[in-house]
Automatic annotation (TrEMBL):
One of its GO terms (biological process) is spermidine biosynthetic process. SUPFAM superfamilies: S-adenosyl-L-methionine-dependent methyltransferases. It comes from Sphaerisporangium rufum. GO terms for cellular component: cytosol. The chain crosses the membrane at residues 27-46, 52-75, 82-102, 122-144, 156-176, 204-221, 485-505, 517-537, 543-561, 573-595, 601-621, 633-653, 659-679. Residues 310-449 form the PABS domain. Keywords: Membrane, Polyamine biosynthesis, Transferase, Transmembrane, Transmembrane helix. This is PABS domain-containing protein. GO terms for molecular function: spermidine synthase activity. Pfam families: Spermine_synth (PF01564). Belongs to the spermidine/spermine synthase family. InterPro entries: PABS, SAM-dependent_MTases_sf, Spermi_synthase. The keyword Transmembrane applies. It comes from the Bacteria.
Length: 682
């Protein structure tokens, strides 16, 4: 007979405090604030520190460390965490008034940024931002952790999850509305004011009110800067200019020049690469349907119209860039009735549409940020794989052609993309290199008769990397390894984490009984990363998909908690068997098969495959957590394990995202081996 874990008995509660909020709503508010602040930090620091948008995972890891330390401080500290608003105010002031730019030069990986960027190396500045994020998040986590001893284990976890979902929903709604940072600062100030309750009015003013006003004031200054917009991905700045009488709109994102809205005739006259896709395509004389991925502010759309396109589908992932093009582009291409706009990820549009085109153009769709929650996946990563170019080929009409152009900077990158086109189309493409900076145009017809090359491409040079794939979509990574910039920064982060845990929590023996919970945290982060990247491939790398996936993970965790609280669940060995079965299922169902299904069926099966192991893993965690003697230390150990999991995400650079499932499975085996004998027999 299966024994039901008793989760209804209340542990001894600490003496009642003087907080004006009862424990349950306080726990929900504190948890919501913790998630909201984490997302806001990732978003804001990436917009203001050049190149940090390529390392958002480091802010996430810092947040995990801070949250874990906050839980471990519960019971060891008597004062409220006034340090959190103070550190946040210092971080905001330093970033705004003493800007840090990270040198773009690094080994083995490319970043598309301003060539004039300079500053300290990334391995030096990333741990600093990591430590600041940890200190800021440690405060709200301490407030959350302080509520846990006052409630039964799983009830506290339940309210923590409800608060986390609330925080994600609030930040997502503000992103949808285009809320600027001052709005995030106001939410943060109100949360600090509501949750921190010092006994001294002077202390409250000095450590809560003044830092909160500093944060709101600094963010208000940034918000009121003329020509500044906030998209769900970037801080967008624009300015009107002219060049010998030609009107221009210069657009930068996250401090980096990104686009320039100019008349079509100007581009065609002075920059040959914009005309070459039409010269190399045999279908240029009958452009009934054109697809432009990365339509941006509209210049490429204007050129397609100027070349006689009868209809243009313009796919652009960033709504603010599209709005700027609609409002200010000199040619007003988005007002033309021949143009249909799609605010979505280009790969997702290709996988969802049944339409075919005479010309498909990837128009400089390089991004300046990563998909949140994934260590190395950029917004455009799934556009430049061999699988993506095969999808483009499948959407060409007879005689149609595919083309892409950019400033590639490295010859091996030009050769790699040309080789990718050759593998996808079955013949050599046209490769034109023009101007300086390795500008190149790569055009491939559906057949060789559908392309008009100026000269035959000689093929890739020796040492050119193989085409990127959907499982390992790292176009700008030259080798099959982890670049030294990541290894150094991750090593420093792990060192700082170990020292911080020892200083804050005391001897590690406090967490020794919960080693299996720590490993559960490691594996869960790998599962979450696999889910984020998988859904990004299946449904797009948009912020909406990302938010839904994170919310879905929390819903799966909440469902596991509710099932464990309300029903008799199988013993832990059985649940581990279900977990391993879910991992095997996720490993054997390829994304390529799911992509071939209609979107509704794809969604249902993708959710089932991705969330079965997540659900099973969290039933394991909930059952184990309900039996722990110290809820805050055990929960903190689990969160600290997430830091190691976040570091192990970078193994995907070597083994691919599918390989992360095998790593997660091995770590879950370790967690099962460390399971206490009593818990295994219960």
């Amino acid at each position: 007979m299966i024994a039901k874990v008793d989760t209804t008995s209340r542990p001894p509660a600490p003496p009642a405090g003087e907080h004006w909020l009862p424990v349950r709503p306080r726990l929900v508010v504190a948890s919501a604030f913790m998630l909201f602040l984490e997302l806001a930090l990732i978003r804001w620091t990436g917009s203001n520190i050049v190149h940090l948008s390529y390392f958002t995972n480091f802010v996430l890891l810092g947040s995990f460390l801070g949250i874990g330390l906050g839980f471990l401080r519960v019971g060891r500290a008597t004062r409220q965490p006034f340090y959190s608003p103070v550190v946040l105010a210092i971080l905001v002031l330093v970033v705004m008034f003493f800007p840090v730019t990270v040198n773009r030069e690094t080994e083995g990986i490319l970043y598309f940024t301003s060539l004039s960027t300079s500053g300290p190396p990334a391995w030096a500045i990333l741990p600093v931002v990591f430590a600041a994020a940890a200190l800021v998040l440690m405060g709200p986590a301490e407030l959350v952790g302080g509520c846990f001893p006052e409630l039964p284990r799983l009830e506290a976890y339940r309210y923590d999850l409800i608060g986390s979902l609330t925080g994600i929903a609030a930040f997502s709604l503000m992103s949808y509305a285009g809320a600027p940072p001052v709005a995030w600062g106001l939410v943060t100030a109100c949360a600090y004011g509501a949750l921190l309750q010092p006994r001294s009015t002077v202390r409250y003013l000095a450590f809560v009110t003044v830092p909160s006003l500093v944060v709101v004031g600094a963010l208000a200054m940034e918000t009121l800067t003329p020509g500044t917009l906030w998209s769900p991905y970037y801080k967008v700045k624009y300015e009107h200019a002219s060049w010998y009488g030609t009107p221009l709109l210069n657009i930068s994102v996250n401090g980096i020049p990104h686009q320039q809205a100019t008349p079509a005739d100007y581009r065609l006259k002075y920059e040959r690469q914009y005309a070459l896709p039409y010269e190399r395509s045999a279908a240029a004389g009958r452009l009934d349907d054109v697809l432009i991925v990365g339509a941006g502010s509209g210049t490429d759309v204007a050129i397609a119209l100027a070349k006689g396109a009868k209809h243009v589908d313009a796919a652009e992932i960033d709504p603010r860039l599209r709005e700027l093009g609609g409002a200010f582009h000199p040619d007003r291409p988005y007002d033309d009735p021949r143009v249909t706009t799609h605010i979505t990820d280009g790969r997702a549009f290709l996988e969802a549409t049944g339409k075919k085109y005479d010309l498909i153009l990837f128009a400089l769709p390089d991004s300046l940020t990563l998909v949140s929650g994934a260590s190395s996946l950029r917004l455009e990563s799934y556009l430049f794989t061999e699988d993506a170019l095969r999808a483009a080929r499948a959407h060409l009409k007879p005689g149609g052609a595919f083309s892409m152009y950019n400033y590639y900077r490295e010859q091996w990158l030009v050769d790699r993309l040309a080789a990718t086109a050759q593998a996808a189309f079955g013949h050599k493409p046209c490769v034109d290199q023009v101007g300086a900076g390795q500008q190149a145009v790569i055009t491939a017809g559906l057949t060789t008769d559908a392309q008009r090359c100026g000269a035959e491409w000689p093929g890739p040079r020796a040492g050119t990397p193989a085409p990127a794939t959907d499982d390992r979509p790292f176009l700008y990574l030259h080798g099959r390894d982890i670049p030294s910039i990541y290894l150094i920064a991750l090593g420093l982060i792990l060192l700082v984490s170990v020292l911080a845990v020892r200083v804050v929590a005391g001897p590690f023996r406090r967490m020794r009984p919960y080693a299996d919970l720590c490993l559960l945290g490691v594996s869960f982060l790998l599962l979450e990363t696999k889910s984020v990247t998988g859904f990004a491939l299946l449904f797009g790398t948009t912020w909406v998909v990302n938010a839904i996936v994170f919310a879905g993970v929390l819903v799966a965790v909440l469902a596991a908690v509710e099932v464990t609280r309300r029903f008799r669940t199988p013993p832990l060995p059985v649940m581990y068997a279900v977990l391993f079965g879910g991992l095997v299922l996720a490993a054997v169902v390829p994304n390529s098969w799911l992509l071939g299904l209609p979107v509704p069926a794809r969604a249902v099966l993708a959710v089932a495959v991705a969330f079965l192991p997540i659900f099973a893993a969290n039933v394991v965690f909930a059952k184990r957590f309900a039996e722990t003697a110290d809820p805050t230390v055990s929960f903190g150990a689990n969160l600290l394990g997430a830091i190691v999991g976040g570091c192990l995400e970078y193994l995907a650079l070597v083994i691919g995202y599918q390989g992360l499932l095998a790593v997660a499975g091995l770590i879950y085996l370790g967690a099962f081996a460390l399971l206490p004998r009593a818990a295994r027999a219960a």
